[in-house]
Design goal:
With about 375 residues, the chain is of the alpha/beta class. The chain has two domains: about 5-10 and about 260-380, Aspartate Aminotransferase, domain 1 (Alpha-Beta Complex), CATH 3.90.1150; about 15-260, Aspartate Aminotransferase, domain 2, CATH 3.40.640. It is built from 13 helices and 14 strands. The strands form four sheets. The protein has a seven-stranded mixed sheet with strand order 2-10-9-8-5-3-4, with helices on both faces. It has a three-stranded antiparallel sheet with strand order 11-14-13, with helices on one face.
């Protein structure tokens, strides 16, 4: 069966992007490639809101968190990591795998990280050499206050590493304005492309940490390697490895479309889809995990389970009867929530309507009286 993706990533990709990827494969060096490469890097910098160095790496987002920790910090050094969900905890695990001492500052599931808690953690751990946080904790769909957290970090004279894997391109995240020293994202979330490419921006403060770090963790995932090739081979071969050039062709199409639409319009489309889904599901008896407000993600929505049926029943019904894939909860939230993504085609009215009508149909099949069309109450929200 051909499934439609309403999950928190990867997203349902536009046919124009897929057609671009189906072109004959270009080589990853030479003048023709450089024209494509520099156009894509320039568009990425617009979306990142940065003039910092930016590298495009064949990898998943977690690989570039490996790159950041391993490049900037030496064995035994201390890093403070925000943890209020699965992906914050993963950041801590990645840091530990580089021999770092991890000091967590935490918030309950579904609550944002607190800048005052970060301030306390830094005060109690003056030996800390960096801070790492997740912007959008996809496991709960809570948005962390990165701007305020970055201010605390910079007051301590440290760099901040931000996992923006599932947020950059979907919500405002101006890297330079907010002083984000390292920012990581991927192609297959809010940039609306298939998986395979990840991106990392590196600011001047981060480079200071890289240059003083005498520990060498690897070659491929080492920022020094990528900088060396950009500086020394940039006139013909700007990356140290073969690039998935067809993926880059697809990315170019998607970035052109996003920038032609305008970033604010792109963000607004996600906000509309999330509100339409939230209002629609509330109208038929569901409760959201994250209440409305600045901490509620417009990129994905977590919805609480209901006593009348198991989350898995709903997920299986949508997949088997309608070809719609949504996600369940992770670890402590397994069976307690389901998650709906609003990226790519899932942020369009036909996809939102199809999802909501399918949920209505499921509820009526469980004997829950839901009038036809009750869930489309939010479609007119703008």
């Amino acid at each position: 069966m051909r499934y439609k993706l309403y999950i928190p990533g990867p997203c349902e990709v536009d046919e124009e992007v897929l057609m671009a990827m189906a072109q004959p494969t270009p080589r990853h060096y030479g003048p023709d490639w450089l024209e494509i490469y520099h156009e894509v890097i320039g568009m990425l910098k617009q979306i990142f809101g940065t003039q910092n160095d930016l590298f495009m790496v064949p990898a998943a987002g977690s690989a570039l968190l490996d790159m950041a920790f391993g490049s900037m910090l030496a064995d035994g050094e201390t890093v403070v990591v925000g943890m209020n969900g699965f992906f914050g905890e993963r950041m801590g695990t990645i840091a530990e795998c580089h021999g770092l001492r991890v000091v967590p500052f935490t918030a309950p599931l579904g609550q944002p990280l607190d800048p005052d808690e970060l301030r306390r953690a830094l005060r109690e751990n003056p030996e800390a050499r960096a801070v790492a946080v997740v912007h959008h904790e996809t496991a709960t769909t809570v948005m962390n206050p990165v701007r305020e957290l970055a201010e605390v970090v910079h007051q301590a004279g440290l760099p901040i590493i931000v996992d923006a894997v599932s947020s950059l391109g979907g919500v405002p995240l101006p890297v330079d304005e907010w002083g984000i020293d390292v920012c990581v994202t991927v192609a297959n979330k809010c940039l609306e492309c298939p998986p395979g490419l990840a991106f990392i921006s590196v600011g001047p403060r981060a480079w200071e940490w890289v240059d003083r770090n005498e520990s060498r963790h690897g070659w491929y995932l080492n920022l020094r390697t990528w900088r060396w090739y950009a500086e020394n081979w940039g006139a013909w071969h700007p990356t140290p490895v073969t690039m998935p050039t067809n993926n880059v062709l697809g990315l170019r199409v998607s970035l052109r479309r996003i920038l032609a639409e305008g970033l604010e319009a792109h963000f607004a489309r996600y906000r509309w889809a999330s509100q339409a889904v939230r209002r629609g599901l509330e109208a038929v008896g569901f409760e959201m995990l994250i209440p409305d407000g600045p901490t509620a993600s417009p990129i994905a929505t977590a919805v609480k389970a209901r006593p009348e049926f198991a989350v898995r029943e709903l997920m299986d019904y949508l997949a088997q009867e309608h070809g719609i894939l949504i996600s369940g909860g992770l670890e402590p939230l397994a069976g307690k929530i389901f998650r709906v993504g609003h990226m790519g085609k899932a942020a369009t009215q036909p996809f939102v309507m199809e999802f909501l009508f399918a949920v209505e149909e499921f509820l009526r099949g469980k004997g829950i009286p839901v009038p036809t069309g009750a869930s489309v109450i939010g479609l007119s929200i703008r």
